[in-house]
Design brief:
The complex is a heterodimer of chains A (284) and B (86). Chain A has helices at 13-24, 36-55, 65-69, 95-108, 124-129, 162-174, 190-206, 212-223, 229-236, 238-252, 261-268; strands spanning 5-9, 28-32, 72-75, 86-89, 114-117, 137-141, 151-156, 178-183. By secondary structure, chain A is of the alpha/beta class. Chain A folds into two domains: 5-183, Rossmann fold, CATH 3.40.50.720; 194-275, N-(1-d-carboxylethyl)-l-norvaline Dehydrogenase, domain 2, CATH 1.10.1040.10. An eight-stranded mixed beta sheet of chain A has the order 3-2-1-4-5-6-7-8. The longest helix of chain A has 20 residues, at 36-55. Chain A is globular and about 55 Å long. Chain B starts with a helix and ends in an 8-residue tail after the last helix. Chain B is elongated, with a radius of gyration of 14 Å. At the A-B interface, helix 2 of A face helix 2 of B.
């Protein structure tokens, strides 16, 4: 079965990016979020993302922006996903929220539909257990910004079938992505290492060892990283970083994942990074 | 110096630390900024100079340096070229 209609749940940074990437590659997209203002913001972000693509002369960016946008339907009604042939879920990293969403998806979506969880740290096996189709639940950990990153971390849950993984790989290939399949474990590969790095970088600022700019400069200049850990944190979102660390901390019961107090303070103060205009750096 | 130069230079200086930017410096080729900054720059140009960056204008060459940004803004502010006469 050709997958032409994809449901995307959650219209935050990742959901909007996934929707943009899918529309760019000819898919019809149904983008769902509980909040209409979030959907409006997502529409704006997608338009900006398409303009950026054009600006940077990405190959195949000649298709008119309006034609690509016309493939995306936004709605607050999850029931509209009855037409979806594949679903990517990107709601906030909170188990209670995700659990409710998956129960609804199970009710609304046709039997063969695969649920691809774009979670940064929550167990795919646990997500699958909240559904009646655990063999058709996989993890797809997209990187940010979605349209620009060529590789996706795919996670095999305890019950994920090889057929589901293959069909997921086919969707990703059509999106222009390559993937690496890893086994289910908190934080998978990417975030288990990255969150520790980011958290330690934040501790360095907290302990006044160096400024944020100097920490990042060391990573860029000494190791050739395109972005330092604190710029990366701002890009991901400090609130998301905090949630991910809390999931890792709960899952491993290991104090090495305890979030730095400075991170909590910035999140409490509303400094969430790029998306709020300010984090370790200012973006407006 | 063009009246817009100081405004553009000040905006770029907030994001490019530790380098004295020349008007002709290609900020992308020199690696001072990345593609994510490109849209921030486009948004700044639209808001600051009250011009609309149309789809046809979305060419990174229009934004590579202070000189090019000013040339682009000046061109847009002057409006479309007049139609040829009968």
């Amino acid at each position: 079965m050709n997958i032409d209609i994809v449901g995307v749940v959650g219209a935050g940074i990742m959901g909007a990016g996934v929707a943009q990437n899918l529309a760019q590659t000819g898919h019809q997209v149904i983008l769902v979020d509980v909040a209409e203002p979030q959907l409006e913001r997502a529409r704006g972000d997608i338009r900006q993302g398409l303009r950026l693509r054009r600006l940077m002369k990405t190959p195949a960016s000649a298709e008119p922006i309006d034609a690509i946008l016309a493939r995306i339907t936004t709605t607050t009604e999850l029931d509209r996903l009855a037409d979806a042939q594949f679903v990517v879920e990107n709601v906030t990293e909170r188990w209670e929220l995700k659990q409710d969403v998956y129960r609804e998806l199970d009710r609304v979506c046709a039997d063969p539909v695969i649920f691809a969880a774009n979670t940064s740290a929550i167990s795919i096996t646990r997500i699958a257990a909240a559904t009646r189709r655990p063999d058709r639940v996989v993890g797809v950990h997209f990187m940010n910004p979605v349209p620009m990153k060529p590789l996706v971390e795919v996670i095999r849950g305890f019950h994920s079938s090889e057929d589901a993984l293959e069909r997921t790989r086919a969707v990703l290939t059509r999106m222009g992505k390559d993937c690496v399949v890893v086994n289910d474990s908190p934080g998978f590969v990417s975030n288990r290492v990255l969150m520790l790095t980011v958290n330690e970088a934040i501790f360095l600022v907290h302990d006044q060892v160096a400024s944020a700019a100097d920490v990042d400069r060391i990573f860029k200049g000494c190791f050739g990283h395109p972005m330092g850990p604190l710029e990366t944190a701002d890009l991901i979102g400090l609130d998301t970083i905090l949630l991910s660390l809390e999931v890792l901390h709960d899952s491993f019961s290991d104090s090495k994942y305890r979030p730095c107090p400075l991170l909590r303070k910035l999140v409490d103060a509303g400094l969430h990074g790029r998306k709020s205009g300010r984090g370790f750096y200012t973006y407006t | 110096m063009h009246p817009y130069t100081a405004t553009v230079r000040e905006f770029l200086a907030r994001h490019i630390r530790g380098h004295q930017l020349q008007d002709s410096d290609d900020i992308f080729a020199l690696g001072f900024v990345n593609s994510l900054f490109a849209m921030q720059l486009v948004t700044f140009v639209e808001a600051q100079f009250a011009v609309t960056v149309d789809n046809e204008d979305l060419d990174i060459d229009n934004f590579r340096s202070i000189d090019r940004i000013i040339a682009f803004v000046t061109r847009k502010a002057a409006g479309p070229a007049p139609e040829p006469g009968p």
